[in-house]
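Attaching the record inline, Q. Sequence:
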Amino acid sequence: MVVTIQTDVIDLTQQAVRIQSLSGEEGTVASLLYDEMKKLDYDEVWIDAYGSLIGKIAGEGRGQSVLFDGHIDTVPVNSPEKWTYDPFGAEIVDGKMYGRGTSDMKGAVCAAIVAGGEIGKEVKRTGVRPEGDIYISASVCEETFEGAALEEIVSKVHPDNVVIMEPSDLNISKGQLGRAEIKINAHGRSAHSSTPDAAVNAIHEMNSMISGIMNLESPTHPDLGTGISVVTDIISSPYPGASVIPDQCQITVDRRLLEEESEQSVLRQYDALVPLNKQFTMHVTEAELSCYTGKKRILKRFFPGWLMEEDSPIVQASLSSLQAIEQDPEIVTYQFCTNGSYSAGIAGIPTIGYGPSSASLVHIVDEYIETEQLTKAAEGIHALAMDLTGSLSK
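Structure, as predicted:
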């Protein structure tokens, strides 16, 4: 099985990486992977309203179901001339496959699809099914809206447990930091720049807020880390300000979220920084999710953090399952946001993270994945799929 998995995973990952698939433009790679699932022994394969691909291997109905999710959209390649290898070439050099999306995260998706196919073959050969249903999803638009596409998937398959396949170095992640995007507006009064005393310069007003954010004592969590606040852009109005003092100034704050933080609790932290008698407004950013299928939806950019207890059934069962195939995972937490923001952070479904490669290799020039990690991930996903459907029901 190892040799078959290795050949099939590497080949499928190369095919997927060679197709550019920015958020909202995943249709071609979804079609490739759909065809692959249809060739393999999946019981059902479909593409949903958002454009995510889902494959099902039906269980006997006496165990719990598990969903393995990974996204097939990638961030852009902004400077291809800086790459040593073609960003869409999927070249393998010294055991490393280079290309955009290798680590983040077409490699993990392809490993899961092949692992699911192996289970399907075993069912066909032996007639023995897993105890519960197994689902593999290749979701869309994660890079722009973590969890939005997964919400649609979960609403249809209703999994008892979820495995997020973001890079974890084949360790088990029991949680993650969430992410919020906050818009803060300072309101002033315009005047000609030759008469500044007649104006309230909104940029000057915003200076105090920025200073407050820079000196804000960020909340911390022993497992998740720090809920940092970073100002990522600033815009004044009118712009350009030709001899006009601006009456509006807006900043965007990227806030990393700890477990159980809400929109209201986060906004209160910034509201407390507003100087007395100054006019500020703030809100969580809303933006349009636009899928390649034509599906559109206005959503808030607020993606909760979450944390599973280390002694929870899904964490301990996953640990035992991987140790049984001679993998040696550590229990870690993701220091970035994933689709788990929906499954665990909103829906409350028991969730872990498990995937090949390292978070340090995503979104970078010369992104790569080690081919050995691809093979081990497929083996690990195979073991988790078979074991979790049964062990969590006992």
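The chain has a mean pLDDT of 95. Residues 2-176+305-391 form a domain with the Aminopeptidase fold (CATH 3.40.630.10).

More tomorrow.
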